Amino acid sequence: MEQMLVRPVRPVQVGPVLRGRERELGVLTGLLERAGRGAGGLLVIEGPPGSGKTRLIEEAQRAAERRGVRVFRGGADPEGRTVLLGPVLRAFASGSEPLLDERQFAEFAHLPNQDFWILQEIREQLERATTAGPVAVLVDDVQWCDESSLRALRSLPEALAGHPVVWVLATRTAGLSRPARATVARLVRDGGRSLRLGPLDGSAIRELARDTLGAEPDDAVLELAAQAEGKPLLLRELFEGLRDEGGVAVRSGRARLTGPRIPQRFEESVRQRLSHLSPLARDFAEVASVLGRSCSVDLMVELLGVPPGSLVEPLREVLAAELMVETDGRMTFRHDLVREAIVALAPAARRRWLRRRAVDLQLARGVPVTDVAVLLAESAGPGDDASVELLTRAVAELAGRAPAAAAELSTRALRLLADDDTDRPRMIAETVALLWRGGAHARALELAESAFRAPGTLDPESEARLRLNLAGLASQQSFTEAVRQGRLGAAVEGASAGLRADSLALLALNLTRGGTLDEARRTAADARALAQDSDRTAAEVTALTAESIVSFMQADWQQAHDAVERAVRLAQDVDPAELPYKPGMWRIYLHSSAGNAQRAVDEADEGILFARRHGQAATMHFWAMSRARFLLDAGRLEESRAEAEGVVAMAEDLGSADFTDTSVRYPLGIVALHTGDRQGVRRAVRDAAEMMRDESVFVRRFGSWLAAQVADWQGDSGRALELMPRETEFFDAVHPRFPVPLDPMDQPAFVRIALRAGDRERAAEAVEVARLRAAANPRFAGLAAAHAHARGLLTDDAELLAGAVQLHRGSQRPIAVASACEDVGRVLLKTSAARGTRYLKEALRLYEECGAQWHAERVARRLAPAGNRTRSDRTKPAARTQDRATGWSSLSRGEVQVARLVAGGATNREVAEQLFVSPHTVNTYVRRSFKKLGITSRVELVRMAMEQDRDGGAAG
């Protein structure tokens, strides 16, 4: 990393007038002008090699500097794909005022997910930089960016959307890796602009010929130029070759061919230029091309084995031939096509030898093995044990931050090993894990299955461990595959008892989401017994956690609490890395379900703070994900939505771009329903449909319940009921197999849906489920409240409903209390307007405190016929919703709080520290504020805040 920070970027190369790209230059100019007004923007320049992408990057730098915009410019190269954040760090270490100081990163070196913390630092420093004026970030050759850099390029533009930051990224149109292709698509989808560079038109070709040849080209010259396919680089090579080699003569003001010439292809043009160099200059260019886009002169001295002074004249020759440019002691190829053409001239064996020699020299200088890993992989051959050892070290360093790159290196190392090498089983397991984590699931399974099929490749212990690893990996994507691998692993004969206990325990955990609860309970019991016999405490903790989950789902809440308490006690003596799911996290979920939502939020806050202090980014992400759900239970809707959206952004920074966890998508959908957020409801429709297609029964049931609530919200209760088939809904004994709704507090909502749909039988079944749950768990008042509420709805009994209100009051689930109050008030209005009004007003107050505007407006309409005027019904609901949709008064309390701190000059991190939330959550508040206020920059936000202060009042 230190090398990347001090590596300079190429300066602007002042060339001839840029022809044929007026439209593209206009777009760049427009972005820079927007930045001058305080708004940012993003442009992706796409095109084939030689189409002029780098030249446009140079023009962007020149135009930005003319306007006083601070510029950071970097670029990727194919040999640097294993360097952590290489192009990004290179960009921000460039210029006369670098954004980054390598000393800032010393504190992150020992942390897991160090790229996550570095990214937070970059975001903070960029945010500060924009307070002094606009900033432009230019990154070339995105197709070769490492995974961490791609994550940075996905997340930073969104996080800094309100700042005057212009992003200009250039990439090839073909040959992109899957992560690079996804990054470009994501940036364009999220509002970035894409410019595809096509061939130059005839007019531009004519102008380029005139610039180079010094005269108007005749038709023969233009016919010749047509064979260059309109690519600026090839056209320039053609015209300069004609000019320098006497291929044209100027007569009567026109450039004419001096005779019939067959245009040289680009590779031949490069070969011709090499042929005019001295032998040492040719060697320099050839050796440099093998090493990559750029190289240091002192390394070349060692590789060529010559005195430093002897390279002075050869360097001048290479520069004069326009093959390379010099930048602060480093020689860089003028274009990748130039380098690729020279590489093709060297024999394969010589290329391998030179690369390995370069690797050895750089390692001897202390260069990190990850920085030379690509060269190493390209230079190694079968049986090269030293290369395998070095590649293994590089894989270990890359695994946590760039699994896809690590997987490719590990695959290469695996090919170098002999079939009977004793390290082969371990390396297969590691490679499978890396391939899976890098998104290459099919390749991971193919490699594993080939190892399982090949006789003698894996002993029983290695096979069982590989199955265990596959089960753990698959559980992040497919519970069905996780269960399949778990069953196969547990059935391996000859594996040790401890490993079988681990396999059974993980299988039990996965069965709670991808199988049946009965099998999960039996498997957990077997795992626990085997774990105790083999002294595998970690397996016993996992088995107890699985038993607790099963008990909860089967309505035995006391047993669920007892089992998880035992698991938490045992886990104190276990390395957390050995636990696939921490029992303490599950225990907090139980607290929230039992009505202790605020306690759950407080414990999640402590978990986030601990994880942040100890640099545990993945753990912090999990706690934040859980916190979003707990805030929903606590009725803190605005905070729940902000936290959930912040979690999605945090997942992006961590490399979890395929984030689909129901504990985030579900609360986002429910909050949208409570608040009447129509855009959020549309998103919930898409999320629910995706969840209902999931392989996991657990996820599908969450999806069906979300979809049912959306349908009911839209006024189609019949459709809502159809979305919840009987066979997945209830049970035939006291213990439900898979209860839906999963939150017992939602049981009254299901009864309400069934009654609206005219199906009293289904409603009665739901009431009976609620009764059996409450009877089985007399210590949990929330279950008794849910039963009383559900039965009161079925019978339209005000006293039962009033009893539910009383039972709910001891909980920390205010929306459940408000819902019961509303139902009591609705029934009592028929016989006692005063009592009914009192309950409805309490419901209204609770809904408003929670921010449940949709429900508040409904209650206000109920109160209106009785002559009650409340804060929520002083205007017509439709008008009120429209009024609050935009303007400062539309901001929520949290949005106003964040907006004022931001307007006061605080960065997202400083706001987060003051409010005890994550910077990602702060960014969510800022983005929502921008949308409501109809603005795109913090400059406009400051102005609006000042206007509110001057006018003497602001909402919230």
Please give a structural write-up:
Helix 24 (497-514) runs parallel beside helix 26 and helix 41 runs antiparallel to helix 42. Residues 1-14, 727-740 and 872-884 have low confidence and may be disordered. Helices cover 63% and strands 5% of the residues. With 956 residues, the chain is mainly alpha-helical. Helix 6 (147-159) links the parallel strand 3 and strand 4. The strands form three sheets. A five-stranded parallel beta sheet has the order 2-3-4-1-5, with helices on both faces. It has a three-stranded mixed beta sheet with strand order 6-8-7.
Would you identify the regions where 5 or more consecutive residues have pLDDT less than 50? Answer: 1-14, 727-740, 872-884
Order of strands across the widest beta sheet?
A: 2-3-4-1-5
What does the main sheet amount to? 5 strands, parallel
**Mean pLDDT across all amino acids:** 82
Number of helical elements: 47
Query: What characteristic shape results from the CA principal axes?
Result: globular
- Percent of residues in beta strands? 5-15%
Total beta-strand segments = 11
Q: What structural category arises from helix and sheet content?
A: mainly alpha
Q: Report the helical percentage.
A: 55-70%
What's the end-to-end separation, in Å? 46 Å
How large is the radius of gyration? 33 Å
